[in-house]
Design goal:
4 helices, 7 strands, Heat Shock Protein 90, 162 residues, alpha+beta, 5-stranded mixed beta sheet, two-stranded antiparallel ribbon
Length: 162
């Protein structure tokens, strides 16, 4: 299914949406997955405006990053989702308290087909697709991680499409 998604990563229709509302809509769908893994979700909604986005594609990015974060915490932990306004950007942080990303693989995590998961567990397309979708919105995605102390993904989306 993700291979099909990969071929359909073109952002088509953009409408003004508040990222907080997109996240709020998705969280109930992911709550079961989090709670069965003993993960607490903390959401800090900043005062962000509506921005022109393809809601389905942006939702796909959020789901992918949240599921990755949940999978990074098999022993439980805290998933923090925070939105903020930083200059002309809406910024979304997705932070986990998992094992972190080894420094040796950091340069490759957004490459298509790169995965650290067991065979059959992942296609290695999720982060690559996410990066493509964010870039098509004129934004950027980055990650900071300390091995043993979790990872933070930062998505920057422009408020005004220029």
């Amino acid at each position: 299914e993700q291979l099909l998604d990969f071929s359909r990563t073109t952002v088509t229709e953009r409408t003004p949406k508040n990222p907080n509302k997109i996240i709020d809509h998705l969280l109930p769908l992911l709550d079961y997955q989090a709670s069965k893994n003993n993960i607490t979700i903390s959401k800090k909604s900043g005062n962000v405006p509506e921005i022109p986005v393809d809601e389905n594609k942006l939702g796909q990015v959020f789901v992918n990053l949240i599921l990755n974060a949940i999978q990074a915490m098999p022993g439980g932990g805290t998933l923090t989702i925070e939105t903020a306004l930083e200059q002309d950007f809406c910024v979304i942080y997705i932070k986990d308290t998992g094992a972190g990303i080894p420094e040796s693989v950091m340069p490759y995590i957004f490459d298509p087909f790169f995965t650290t998961k067991e065979v059959g567990e992942g296609t290695g397309l999720g982060l690559s697709i996410s990066k493509s979708i964010i870039e098509q919105h004129g934004g950027a995605i980055a990650v900071e991680s300390i091995e043993g102390a979790g990872a933070t993904f930062k998505i920057k989306l422009p408020i005004i499409v220029g």
